[in-house]
Amino acid sequence: MTENLPIDDRVKKAWDDLQAVEAAVQEAEQTLHQATVTTRSADQKVELTVGAQGELLAVEFPGSGHRTMTGAELSASILDAAGRARAAMARQVMEAFDPLAGMLSGGPGAEDLAVDWNKIFGSALEAFEEPGESAAMSRLRDEIDEE
Q1: Strands across the sheet containing 47-51
Q2: Which of 2, 46, 64, 72 sits at 20 to 30 Å (Cα–Cα) from 24?
């Protein structure tokens, strides 16, 4: 399509496309700059907040249920909440940068620009996609069964 255009028009289109991508990146960065995610563990005894870079911002214990937990149970709840927060933030980052994927696809070298979200976020995308028991809770159950 653009191959049939004069070189000046192709250069202008490429420049315009580049500026649109830069604007989209800037918008995504601004969206994520102050982003936080707060989640609760499956047992609702731990609430955890993380920032856009996965930094731990707050750990709270709603109610008093945590007081009767063993160390292993509390640890499992904290890990569960952290995993859920990590997965939620990963999804939020992906959504913020999603418009870029459409802008970059179809152009020359687009296959080299594809984002491998699994490589970036690793297990965070797999651990909490389906409702149910987290890996931390599963490990806790295994630990309790062994005692």
Answers
A1: 36-40, 47-51, 56-60
A2: 2
**Residue with tokens 């699994």, as numbered in its chain:** 118
pLDDT digits (tens, 9 = 90+) for 118-131: 766 766 666 555 44
Q: Helix count (H) and strand count (E) of the chain?
A: 6, 3
| Residue range(s) defining the domain that contains residue 81 | 2-146
**27-41 pLDDT per residue, tens:** 888 878 888 999 999
What's the burial of 4, exposed, middle or buried (CB within 10 Å: 0-12/13-18/19+)? Answer: exposed
Q: In 3-state terms, what secondary structure has residue 39?
A: strand
DSSP 49-113: EEETT--EEEEE--SSGGGG--HHHHHHHHHHHHHHHHHHHHHHHHHHHHHHHHHHTTSTTHHHH
* Residues 8 and 26 sit within 8 Å (Cβ to Cβ): no
Q: Is the pTM of this model over 0.85?
A: no
Question: What's the rounded mean pLDDT across residues 72-83?
Answer: 94
**Residue 49's CATH number:** 3.30.1310.10
